[in-house]
From TrEMBL:
Segments of skewed composition (Basic and acidic residues): 13-26, 134-164
Residue stretches making up the CLU central domain: 231-408
Lineage: Eukaryota, Sar, Stramenopiles, Oomycota, Peronosporomycetes
Transmembrane spans: none
InterPro entries, alphabetized: CLU-central, CLU_dom, CLU_prot, TPR-like_helical_dom_sf, TPR_rpt
Gene Ontology cellular-component terms listed: cytoplasm
Residue numbers spanned by region Disordered: 13-36, 134-180, 687-714
Descriptive protein name: Uncharacterized protein
Biased composition (Basic residues): 700-714
Entry superkingdom: Eukaryota
């Protein structure tokens, strides 16, 4: 559904300037350039007035130049004049308006509502209407029931009551049909969008309400979903897709960053969201800056390598190591490039463009902000990840660079030799899914998989895979998703070998279609590692899960929540094969990277306690289990089964620790007794050896003396 309203509009006709120009051309005997008539008669139109249409020779009507089908975004335009005025007066907007006051004045730019938002808004309005109708019917039913209770007499009254309830159910079924929402795409223009003034006012109210719906409901819900872990975009590309699917325009990156910044100040959201949002804003601004530089000079556009290197070094180079850079003069680069792409001027331009396009002031990135605390003490040094920035810049600018360890601590980490190619970044109008039927089967199969009905899920996914193979071949992203879903189905059904084969196929497709650093490629590595571990191939599983951790950290930095979960899974793999030391190291890394998930922290601590108990360290196990008990009790209360289970483990570890202590005391006592005995034996042996060294005559002489004395007594 397009949700486009049909309205009657009076055309403007030709302006006085056009008419005067035509008269001058006629006076000169030249045919007017704008031939034809421009009528001012009221016309009925369904769509934007900028669209063009022709009637073909077959009698059909064809639409041309359909540039938009949705109305303008009222949020963008309502504060624009005030924002431009405050920018001219160099005033800072209020904190509550962060991300909503734009000062960009690009020629030809029109801020529109996304079609996805119109779809969501229509569903929301329909649900509201149904809810209001149900509440009204419920109130009327209760009032009618109260009247009937007063007037009911015997069975006849009961029969009438049943009949009335049946009639109400029929009325409810009939009244559930809600008319579709229709928006006028021509509101907020310089001309009247409808000849009916009342209808025009209603259209403007509906368009304003749709814009307010995005700010009041959609954007806060998006941040809340990220906060609780329901969604976790792994990089700027995934973030763009997710925002567009929710109907959020990319100009509201600053709004999301402002909300994330406020939540992060109170430790309410993961650090990675703000880091990723700032990287995305800088990459988008850098694209426009480079475009301006290339369009400003033909010689630079003919050989853009030096300008690109200068741009990358200005963003990624270290300001503390910056010195007077004379590469431009040595390479003969134009003065325009030197003046506009040095680090100081570049970051000034980036800050200005970020404020104008996104209404946001960078907190993590900037000249000197990555190496000094700066103005905001809530965001310490070391939050920037320049590898992530380099990757996103290459994606947005269409660059290919050498894969090596770059020395970002220098002022010029990238040289001209590192740029291996420049490719165009294009947008297409191709549908996201080549076959609607295959898409529906895929969604239904995944839904059955989430519900646990494996047989139905397997049949639907197999049919979807077959259709995709017939329509677009095996090399398609939906085919990879089918293989990954089939692998999950087979894994839960017990066919681990089949799951491994399907997941390997999905991994190969993701790598071939999207590249080795695509976020779904990383997740495919992680799932394959789990399947291999379940098949007792842990030696093959660990490299895959390490690869997934590396790719995710390369895509979005070290604070991505999924990295903590992957470290925990790798620790469990090591623990299952008896590598307790490695398991504890992985669990500690998982705890270090996990920020706010108490249940996950408790689970990790419990596994660390079990690992210590397997190694005989019951004291350490008891210490970890006490932390688990504290977290569980604080989160769920004393009566929760998890708290009770933790109490049992504490008692068990305490008993084992006491037994171990008793055993150690007995062992210590036995060792002490053995030591005393050994010492006495040593002394006796020493005396015996001393006697042997002195010889036996003294003893014989003493004996003779006694016998001699005895002879005297007799």
């Amino acid at each position: 559904k397009l949700h486009i309203a049909e309205r009657s509009i009076k055309p403007l006709g030709k302006s006085e300037e056009d008419l005067a120009a035509e008269k001058e051309q006629e006076a000169l005997g030249v045919a007017p350039m704008s031939g034809g008539e421009a009528s001012t008669e009221v016309a009925t139109i369904c769509g934007a007035v900028e669209a063009k249409g022709i009637q073909g020779s077959d009698g059909r009507l064809y639409v041309l130049d359909l540039v938009r089908i949705t109305p303008k975004d009222w949020t963008f335009y309502k504060n624009r004049e005030a924002a431009l005025k405050s920018a001219d007066e160099k005033k800072v907007s209020a904190p509550e308006e962060d991300g909503l006051c734009f000062t960009r004045d690009d020629e030809g730019y029109a801020a529109l509502l996304r079609p996805e938002l119109v779809q969501l808004y229509s569903l929301w309005k329909e649900n509201q209407a149904r809810r209001a109708n149900r509440e009204a019917r419920k109130a009327a039913k209760e009032a009618k029931k109260a009247e009937e209770e007063k007037q009911e007499n015997g069975n006849e009254g009961d029969a009438e009551k049943k009949d009335s309830e049946e009639n109400e159910q029929e009325e409810e079924e009939e009244e559930e049909e809600i008319p579709p929402l229709l928006l006028n795409p021509n509101v907020f223009m310089d001309y009247a969008a409808s000849t009916d003034s009342e209808q025009l006012d209603a259209d403007e109210v509906a368009a304003k309400d749709a814009a307010e719906y995005m700010q009041r409901i959609v954007v806060p819900a998006f941040v809340a979903d990220v906060r609780r872990g329901a969604i976790a975009p792994a990089d700027g590309y995934a973030l763009t897709q997710l925002m567009h699917s929710c109907g959020i325009n990319m100009r509201y990156l600053g709004r999301l960053a402002s909300l994330a910044k406020k939540l992060e100040a109170i430790s309410g959201i993961s650090k990675y969201l703000l880091e990723m949002l700032e990287v995305e804003m800088i990459a988008r601004v850098a694209k426009h800056i480079l475009a301006d530089v290339l369009n400003s000079n033909d010689s630079i556009r003919a050989a853009p390598g030096t300008a690109i290197v200068k741009l990358l070094n200005g963003i990624l180079g270290s300001s503390s190591a910056a010195a007077v850079d004379k590469t431009d003069e040595a390479n003969g680069t134009d003065a325009i490039t030197t003046s506009s792409l040095d680090a100081k001027t570049l970051w000034t331009r980036i800050d200005k463009e970020t404020k104008a396009r996104f209404d946001y002031r960078l907190a993590l990135w900037g000249l000197g902000r990555d190496e000094s605390r700066g103005e905001d003490a809530a965001f310490p040094v070391g939050r920037v990840n320049k590898s992530v920035m380099l990757r996103r810049l290459c994606q947005r600018l269409g660059l290919r660079v050498v894969s090596r360890n770059y020395e970002f601590s220098s002022s010029s980490p990238i040289s001209l030799d590192d740029i291996t190619g420049v490719v165009p970044v294009v947008k297409t109008s191709l549908p996201a899914h080549p076959l609607a039927q295959a898409k529906q089967l895929l969604e239904r199969g995944r839904m059955h998989l989430s519900q646990g009905t494996l047989s139905n899920a397997y049949e639907l996914l197999q049919e979807a895979s077959s259709l995709l193979f017939q329509v677009c071949g095996a090399a398609h992203e939906d085919a990879a998703l089918c293989s990954s879903s089939l692998a999950t189905v087979l894994y839960h059904a017990g066919d681990v070998a089949g799951a491994i084969a399907q997941q390997q196929r999905a991994l190969a497709l993701y790598t071939q279609l999207q590249g080795i650093d695509y976020h779904d490629t990383a997740y495919a590595h992680a799932n394959l590692a789990l399947f291999l571990h379940a098949n007792a191939q842990t030696d093959l599983a660990v490299p895959h899960i390490r690869r997934a951790i590396y790719l995710l950290e390369f895509c979005c930095g070290p604070h991505f929540p999924e990295i903590s979960s992957l470290y925990f899974k790798m620790g469990m793999m090591c623990q299952d094969v008896g590598q307790i030391t490695l398991a504890l190291m992985c669990h500690r890394e998982s705890l270090r990277r996990g920020e706010f998930d108490r249940s996950q922290a408790a689970n990790v601590l419990h596994q660390m306690a079990l690992a210590c108990s397997l190694a005989g360290g019951y004291r350490e196990a008891l210490m970890y289990e006490k932390k688990v008990y504290s977290l569980m009790k604080e989160a769920f209360g004393d009566e929760d089964p998890r708290v009770i289970e933790s109490t049992k483990f504490m008692a068990k570890f305490t008993e084992k620790a006491v037994e171990g202590a008793k055993g150690r005391r007995e062992v210590d006592a036995a060792e002490a007794a053995d030591a005393i005995a050994n010492e006495l034996l040593g002394e006796l042996e020493f005396k015996t050896e001393a006697n042997h060294d002195a010889g036996s005559p003294p003893a014989a002489k003493k004996k003779n003396r006694k016998s001699k004395n005895g002879g005297k007594k007799h």
